[in-house]
Design brief:
Strand content: under 5%
Shape: rod-shaped
Number of strands: 2
Number of helices: 9
Strand order of the largest sheet: 1-2
Distance between the termini: 69 Å
Order of helices and strands: EEHHHHHHHHH
Organism: Paraeggerthella hongkongensis
Helix content: over 70%
Membrane topology: Single-pass membrane protein
Structural class: mainly alpha
Pfam family, one: LemA
Keywords: Membrane, Transmembrane, Transmembrane helix
Protein name: LemA family protein
């Protein structure tokens, strides 16, 4: 029998849900079998952990996508810094070439080789072409320094020319640093884009591996000092050599070669 309305209730509730298996003759009572609710309860039990897993996967992929984009921006920034240093070094090389031409070094083949290599180096925008152009420029410039030593040795003793050689040594030192930093970021970016699960979203995020800057003919400041006989540059050679060993050997070899192994080991 339905319960009588309590005092103060103007409109008694005619419907309510009763769980059980009994049937009632009262039309105001609906009976729902308990077994009918079991499929819905099981579905809800499965949906809750699935929703948590999807939310966790979305959060992880978002973090990985942001990390990939950050490494890409850092690689681009390091490349721009390396390019700026290359342009400064090339300008100093051009001034050295002009000084050599103005002081009696008139070998057409040597001067033209430097000018062609200089133009190619200035036009190179990607790391591979830049490395090839810098190789040719370094070889041509060293040949020019040999000519200066043989035909215009008095030029080496002049303060302005010695300062140019010193500036060249400092820029080569900075080039080594920038090269190590860029190659490090480029390698980290490439490894991140090829590692699961980041590779699942790498293509949609515009992932494109960065080329490494690997010139074969490193323009070593020590070679410039040996060719020029510049006292100022020779005195700076311990500092230059320490920086070269630190970045070229310590950073480029150790970090760039061992980092992929550590990632694989994980």
């Amino acid at each position: 029998m339905p319960l009588p309305p309590s005092e103060g209730d103007e409109h008694p509730k005619p419907y309510f849900l009763r769980y059980g298996t009994e049937r009632s003759s009262d039309p105001t009572i609906r009976t729902v079998p308990a077994a009918a609710l079991q499929p819905k309860e099981h579905a809800l039990t499965l949906l809750i952990p699935i929703a948590f897993l999807l939310a966790g996967a979305f959060a992880v992929m978002t973090i990985l996508a942001r990390n990939l984009a950050s490494l890409g921006r850092e690689s681009d920034a390091m490349w721009e810094q390396l390019q700026a240093t290359r342009r400064s070094r090339n300008d100093v090389m051009a001034r050295i070439t002009d000084a050599a031409r103005a002081n009696g070094v008139d070998d057409p083949s040597a001067l033209q080789a430097v000018e062609r290599a200089f133009a190619d180096a200035q036009a190179a925008e990607d790391p591979t072409r830049a490395a090839e152009a810098d190789d040719a420029l370094c070889v041509a410039h060293r040949n020019l320094l040999d000519l200066i030593e043989g035909r215009a040795s008095a030029l080496l003793e002049r303060a302005p020319f010695a300062l140019l050689l010193e500036d060249l040594g400092k820029l080569e030192d900075r080039m080594t640093t920038c090269k190590g930093l860029y190659n490090n970021r480029a390698t980290m970016y490439g490894n991140a884009g090829r590692t699961f699960p980041t590779l699942l979203i790498a293509k949609q995020r515009g992932f494109a591996p960065r080329e490494r800057y690997l010139p074969r003919e490193a323009s070593d400041p020590l070679a410039v000092a040996a060719a020029s006989g510049s006292t100022a540059l020779a005195e700076a050679s311990p500092r230059i050599m320490n920086a070269y060993m630190l970045w070229a050997i310590g950073l480029s070899d150790t970090v760039l070669e061992e980092a992929p192994q550590h990632r694989t080991g994980r």
